[in-house]
Amino acid sequence: MMNSVAREDSLVSSDAKFVARNISKHFDGVYAVNGATVSCADNEIVGLIGPNGAGKTTLMNVISGVVRADEGEICLDGTQIEALAPEHCARMGIARTFQNIRVFSKLTVRQNIQVAHATGLRQRSSKRKCATEDELIELLELTAASDLKSETLPYGTQRRVEIARALALGPRVLLLDEPAAGMNEQESEALLQTIREISRRFGFGIIVIDHDLRFIMNVCDRIYVMHMGEIIAHGDPGSVRENPTVREVYLGNRHRDGSPMA
Amino acid sequence: MSYLLLSARRTVIPAIFLILCCVAVVLFGEGYHVRVAYMFFVNLVIVAGLQVFMGNSNVANLGHMSFAGIAAYAVAVLYTPTALKATLIPNAPFGLATIQLDFVTASVIALALTAVIGWLSGLALCRLSGVAATIGTLALLVIVHVVFVNWIDITRGPRAFFGIPVALGLPWAVGAAVLAIFVARWFRDSSDGLQLRASGDNLLAARSMGVNIQRVRLKAWVLSATIVGMGGVLFALFMGTIAPNSFYFTQTFLTIAMLILGGMRSVSGAITGTFIVAVGFEFVRTLENGPEILGVQLPTMFGLTGFFLGAIIVIFLALRPDGLLGTDEFEDHWAAFRQRLRARK
How far apart are CA A146 and CA A110, in angstroms? Predict the structure, then answer.
């Protein structure tokens, strides 16, 4: 018992603004997430990696209110938010993007941003600033596409629309669910710079899910490794890279010879 | 405020077109044409109202005609002279048989009543999504119809409520249609309208962007009910006679066919669809009666109009589910057209 508490506390950084503690969620008796804890401080970029089916997206859905957790608590700035519906989570300041793109396909890029901006402006306060539409369009390099219907845009651009839209909420924490999926090398490199720029400019915590290790290693300050619904390792990119358990579950036997990962 | 002006500006072109139609009918038409034109404007108001909820939320609505019925019966009861009501509905509750209002007051009260009933029904219906929501609206249509048929003291039941003095003519109908189009445009362009359209596009994403689905749907539902109610008032104050079947399946499918054909996602689609179906409907109605064309006597074909409406709905749902205009308004199409021209040069 002592051990588990000690382990859990080590998963939460001392200055964390956002904490999801001991989250469990099962579907028909199968645990998708089993006692997972993640946290995120301001100005921090946190990665969540793990093989397919590890429970990353379920955890993300629990945090954003899309799925109700069976157990566990979620705190944002000291407020409990684990029982809230998605729209209330959004108003509290949890913004997210979706792994399977969910832009408003019939609306233009600008209108996509306006939908979230209407919420963001209503929730504006001293703690939460809300960037203007034009700032977001410029930041995500959407100027040329701003008046086009989003269904006509290429995959990578739609992902950027989702990020711009999430930022329009004026969030306290930003969840990016596989933002680099389907992007080529250059696009994901550009995205990496954008994520750093967002962190620098707005200063809120960012949680990035991906299974592209190189991407996560490059962008994140701290990384959680998830497997079978549990957090099996945690730390800075260097220590996670060296962690033998991570190699075991994540890369299988191929890398036991100690060759550098990814 | 600025987008109120913008919506007004975007209403100008359809408004000019409608007014020209009206002037043409008044100058060159006979009584029959005036009647057809008037019904076109009534349907246009109803379809614009239907678009406000169905087009923006993307939730199919089969219950809108119940609001036209409620408003029509309300204005009929309030506006019909007491002398006539003494024989028509002598046992009307709340002393309704003994009061008579001018048609403006009667219409305002009728619309207010429709809005209140819309709000109450919306509290339940706006919680539903998808098929459940559609079946809920259908249930509303049936419930209201059953009330019309059985609350004989106030509606005269299945027998028609006749003798409503004719108070309105074509200019009123045109004015109401322009107002309905303007309000529909204004709502579509508003922040709530945009959030509702987003929810119709992707419900989960809209919720994750903080959209209160129930609130924006309820707002659209009440607005939609009120505009459709305005259509009901127009109908009652021109026809002079209303019956429960005036506001039932036939009208429901006629107006839905109009909206689907033009494209329910835009107000321009609603206008276009109403116009094309109205013209087609008149044409088919002529065919139905077995006219003589080029010396050939065609047989009478009863039910051809119903067949025509059914065929329109099926064909468009299968081949062009977004309707003729798709999701865009007239000015969007115009801008796209000009862009294509420029690209060609």
Answer: 5
Q: What is the pTM of this model?
A: 0.90
Residues A89 and A113 in one domain: no
Which residues of chain A have a CB within 8 Å of the CB of B198?
104, 107, 111-112, 115
Q: Does A165 touch chain B (CB under 8 A)?
A: yes
- DSSP conformation class of A251: I
- Judged by a CB distance cut-off of 8 A, whether residue A144 touches chain B is no
Are the beta carbons of A87 and B201 separated by less than 8 Å? Answer: no
Say if residue A84 is in the same domain as residue A202.
Answer: yes
Which of B204, B211, B213 has its CB closest to that of A115? B211
In chain B, which residues have their Cβ closer than 8 Å to the Cβ of A169? 209-210
Inter-chain touch B194–A90, beta carbons under 8 Å: no
Whether residue A251 is contained in a domain is answered as: yes
What does the block give as tokens for B65? 């005609």
**Nearest Cα to Cα of residue A228 among A214, A249, A207, A253:** A249
Q: Are residues A160 and A182 in the same domain?
A: no
Structure tokens at B264: 């329910």
Asked whether the predicted pLDDT for residue B212 surpasses 60, the reply is: yes
Residue A259 has pLDDT above 80, yes or no: no
Domain count, chain A: 2
Query: Do A20 and A124 belong together in one domain?
Result: no
pLDDT digits (tens, 9 = 90+) for A138-192: 999 999 999 999 999 998 899 999 999 999 999 999 999 999 888 888 888 999 9
Q: Which two tokens stand for residue A40?
A: 């995120």
